[in-house]
Write a structure and sequence with these properties.
Number of helices: 5
Largest sheet: 2 strands, antiparallel
Strand content: 5-15%
Helix content: 25-40%
Structural class: alpha+beta
Strand order of the largest sheet: 1-2
Radius of gyration: 17 Å
Length: 114
């Protein structure tokens, strides 16, 4: 009698927008809380970029739009956050020496040994 194999659990990272480049993917993010004068207004050009990257007819797209409307929280790719000035410096520290890594390669680096 053979044992039935259990499939490996696949972790699915949610897709989110990047409030700096307006890309829409599952790459690692730095979540930044903004208040007062730090809250960033969205330009028409940025909104057009968002619309071209996101299918608003999906649950992921609807979630992305909702977070885009909430300007008190920003989701930033770690490299994008570093490029505009990471507020707590964590994006510089976790990417030190591997600044060229993005997406799945960055996830693998950040989770090695986990």
């Amino acid at each position: 009698m053979s044992k039935q194999e259990t499939p490996a659990t696949v972790e699915v990272r949610p897709k989110r927008e990047c409030d700096v480049c307006f890309g829409f993917d599952d790459a690692p993010r730095h979540v930044v809380a903004l208040t007062g004068e730090d809250v960033i207004k969205i330009t028409e050009e940025q909104m057009e970029t968002f619309r071209s990257n996101v299918d608003l007819n999906t649950s992921e797209g609807a979630r992305a739009l909702s977070s885009l409307i909430d300007r008190t929280t920003q989701y930033r790719h770690m490299d994008c956050c570093a490029s505009v000035g990471c507020p707590d410096g964590s994006c510089y520290r976790v990417r030190a020496g591997v600044e060229h890594l993005r997406n799945d390669e960055l996830v693998a680096h950040l989770t090695k040994g986990a």
